[in-house]
Design a protein that fits this description.
heterodimer; A: alpha/beta; six-stranded parallel β-sheet; six-stranded mixed β-sheet; 14 helices; globular; B: alpha+beta; two-stranded antiparallel sheet; 2 helices; 5 strands; about 10% helix
């Protein structure tokens, strides 16, 4: 029987790894990832889990250990945060290129400017071009569920790619929430044991990661490109099966909230969706036809889903909880990719960029109200008046007084 | 697929050979080739120890020779040779 538990996103993933019966986990402390390593160590010491835990001397070593373990046929995991993600950078492409389906947990944290423990998605989004499957969880339950789903997708013999279970540092990694820990039998039914076609074996020796000639490189790159496109199909089938077995109701790519009659939607990922939903409830009461689209995956980017969903709306406010300094459009990664997704679609909406929630800042109701107000003015003007808004930093050039007035109206409706 | 490419097995995972792997020849990156002067060579095998690609062969009768299919011309052998018996010569000076 599934059991209700109180815990954080990190204990939820520790539960997922326990249920998945992982063989090796490589660790190195960095906040906010550290607590899962302590949790795993405790469970191994208590005899709850049978797993080899190897402590690296840094994140580069951590991912190297997991790489080696995976090549030897182990279901291997690791994880990190912030600058730890970037310290391990050399390993991401070789791991994906060797088709080692390692799973890493990333508790997102700001990259140092020069030292910030706050949450934002910039760390993880810097490695988006390396062939890893990844997406964001909004809460502890989804962290656990994404972990199980990603094992299943990544270890599929047709896929064999590494995965990152990303979650907002602190907001998800450290806040105690209630979640459901599935039953071992349910997990066994969903997730078969990891049996790779190739592995390092002294009786049947193979070379993994050999030097190759330049003429051999392009076909390998092509294979990675093709398989990443195939991941989208797997996400659809695996999500459907997951929902049936565990009784959840996840959309494969994009969760929609109050979008049936919406003119305007927020598009975002991660834990701020929780605040966004309740802000929408207030905005609806104040007469705003606003909804939310939450991305569950970033690689592969759900561009087909966005092509189908976004033309229903007139204004899309993309909220970037990351930065990509100097990026096209002046926003972050999400804005660039969303615009690219729908660039050739008929009746495409006006896509307005917002940057908020950096450095661990909470995106408050008031900020959502302000963004909704700016989207409404875009809707009424039929053009984007000010793009690439850093919420709380940019002045809204046209109609600043109206924004202030409308904010008071929304605050009134809230009371 | 175009003839210019070489198809590689899944993730370039290949059976482990006992000596060398014909499927993964990498000596075509080289622009300087190691050449040994056998009159100077003392057969000390220092180059054999240092070669990072195991391209130095040794036999009691003939001394050292190079497996040019995998030698990338890094020059480590000539640098460590204690008697200066190994030189590096431009690849284009050789017919094959």
């Amino acid at each position: 029987m599934p059991i209700k538990k109180k815990g954080t996103g990190l204990t939820a993933v520790a539960d997922a790894w326990q249920l998945a019966d992982i063989d090796v986990s490589a660790s190195y402390p960095i906040r906010p990832y550290t607590a899962i390593m302590a949790e795993l160590a405790k469970r191994i010491a208590n005899g709850q889990m049978k797993c080899e835990m190897v402590h690296g001397e840094g994140e580069h070593a951590q991912f190297s250990i997991a790489h080696g373990a995976s090549m030897a046929g182990a279901r291997a995991t690791t994880g990190t945060s912030g600058v730890g993600v970037t310290y391990a950078f050399e390993l991401y492409s070789p791991i994906a290129g060797a088709r080692c389906p390692i799973q890493a947990l990333v508790g997102d944290r700001t990259l140092d400017p020069p030292g910030d423990f706050g949450s934002e998605h910039t760390d993880c989004l810097t490695l988006r071009d390396n062939g890893w499957i990844y997406g964001w969880a909004q809460d502890a339950q989804e962290s656990l569920d994404n972990s199980l789903m990603m094992f299943r997708i990544g270890e599929d013999p047709e896929i064999m790619l590494p995965q990152i279970v990303a979650m907002d540092g602190y907001f998800v990694t450290h806040i105690n929430q209630e979640y459901e820990m599935p039953d071992q039998e349910q997990v066994d039914k969903f997730l078969p044991p990891f049996k790779p076609q190739f592995r390092l074996d002294v009786n049947h020796p193979v070379i993994m990661g050999p030097q190759i000639e330049p003429e051999m490189g392009p076909p390998l790159e092509w294979d990675r490109n093709v398989v990443m496109q195939r991941v989208s199909e797997k996400i659809v089938t695996v999500t459907k099966e997951f929902n049936e077995i565990f009784g959840r109701n996840y959309a494969p790519f994009v969760e929609e909230y109050e979008t049936e009659d919406a003119d305007m939607v927020f598009l975002l990922q991660g834990a701020h969706a929780v605040t966004c939903r309740s802000a929408i409830d207030y905005l609806r009461k104040a007469g705003y036809k606003v909804g939310m689209c939450r991305l569950r995956w970033v690689r592969p980017f759900p561009d087909q889903a966005l092509k189908e969903i976004l033309p229903k709306f007139k204004v899309v406010g993309v909220i970037d909880t990351n930065t990509s300094y100097g990026a096209a459009g002046g926003g972050g990664v999400l804005l660039v990719e969303t615009r690219a997704s729908v660039s050739e679609v008929a009746n495409k909406p006006m896509i307005q960029g917002f940057t908020s929630g950096l450095g661990g800042e909470t995106i408050t109701h008031e900020q959502f109200f302000k963004m909704a107000e700016m989207m409404k003015m875009t809707l009424e003007a039929g053009k984007i008046i000010q793009d690439s808004t850093w919420v709380n930093f940019n002045d809204y050039h046209e109609g600043a007084t109206e924004v202030k007035y409308a904010n008071q109206q929304v605050a009134y409706a809230k009371e | 697929m175009s003839k210019a490419y070489k198809q590689v097995p899944f993730a370039a995972i290949v059976p482990s050979p006992k000596t060398e792997n014909e499927g993964m020849v990498t000596g075509n990156w080289r622009y300087l080739r190691p050449v040994v002067d056998k009159s100077l060579c003392t057969k000390c095998k220092t180059c054999w120890i240092f070669c990072p690609d195991a391209c130095v062969n040794y036999s009691k009768d003939d001394g050292i020779s190079f497996n040019l299919k995998y030698c990338k011309g890094c020059g480590l052998c000539s640098n460590v040779c204690p008697v200066g018996a190994i030189s590096r010569q431009p690849e284009l000076d050789f017919e094959e």
